[in-house]
Amino acid sequence: MKCFALVGKALLPADVWVVAGLPHRAPEATASRLGAWCVGGMGVPVVGLSSELHGGNLAARAAALGVRSHHLLDASASLAPLRPAVALELWRSSLDLAGLRAYPDRAHSVLRVAIARLHGLDPAWVLPGNGAAELFTWAARDAAAAGVSALPAPGFADYGRALVCWGGAALPWALPLHWDAAFPQVLPAPPAAQVLWITNPHNPTGQLWSRESLAPLLARHQLVIVDEAFLPLAAGGEAQSLIPLLAEHPNLVVIRSLTKLYGLAGLRLGYALAAPERLARWAAWRDPWPINGLAVALGQRLLRSPARYQRHCAWVQAWCAREGAWLAQRLAGLRGPWGVLTPLPSAVNYLLVRGEGSLVPLRQSLEQRHRILLRDCRSFDGLDECWLRIGLQSRRGNRRLLRALRHEWALLGAPC
Ligand SMILES: Cc1ncc(COP(=O)(O)O)c(C=O)c1O
Q1: Which of 340, 381, 287 is nearest to 34 (CA)?
Q2: Which range, of 38-42, 118-122, 197-201, averages the lowest pLDDT?
């Protein structure tokens, strides 16, 4: 099996890399793909996720282009549009100065009750976090202790970042790069590993995996971490969630996020659903106030009513289905002298697009001439410069994107 170097200095005989917390030299190609970087200082390197390799670097790109960030159309991150009702709740939460003056409740009791009610669970099964990303860090601590993790490739690089923290070992789990448009789909068989990291729907492909294909894995693997950050955005997604299997499977962790669903990446609010003993352990490891008071207050407001939450999900799912079909159809019709763009079928709010040649010049021109950011896919293992990921926008934004693409597609491109 091909070795999967995250960051490390020791190659084990079984082709498994130790994901060392303090590497002295990262294997370059893979380290850069996964966004790992090393900074020497007093002989103690630091490892982290390079912001260049994640989408949504709005402030940095705006500064580089010399424009204000609201002039950019950011299709490099995949967020639902910010609805006025959500903005109003944000405004109301920010007015609660008394709430912000006090330390946040360390037990997050009210928020946990609200989240538990949404999913029909006891609050002891809920742990809110500073975005899903913080919770991956704690999941990775358990994963590193359990053994080798199988990481989907192409897949979300943050799982690798989290494993780096604990010196966890990882294997690649290569996913085929072709699929049909019928969702949900069967998850490809994982390699032999104690721990599975599953993204449902998958990032960057947008595939929705069926619960039927995921459930048997719980009997075969010591720990199964399912990232459902995008699941509430997919029509019919909840029917594929593993949340109903939690009670019977202490080896299952489900992670959700408000980032994508509410278009609130800056709020940093997510939650883990898992057996109370596991979550109590994580809570004891983390810092005392991992979630700021504003995020807690807004989370409580947004999630306080299951009916309201369902209505929001239905609105987002309708937007996603409508704009996804509209944009995919028009992208597929884009033909330049150098070939066509092929958007692959997606169940969620982004389209993975394959080009017949390098799409890097096109992406750069869109950024520089049209102030539109698309996701460069070279940071995803198994994808190269012929791929882009496009986050859906409002209809107005999608029209702006298409106009720019048509303009540039007529001017640029060379087969790679
Ligand atoms: C699949 C997936 N899960 C989780 C996250 C991060 O969520 P959060 O903003 O809650 O940390 C992302 C962000 O890009 C993602 O793509």
Answers
A1: 381
A2: 38-42
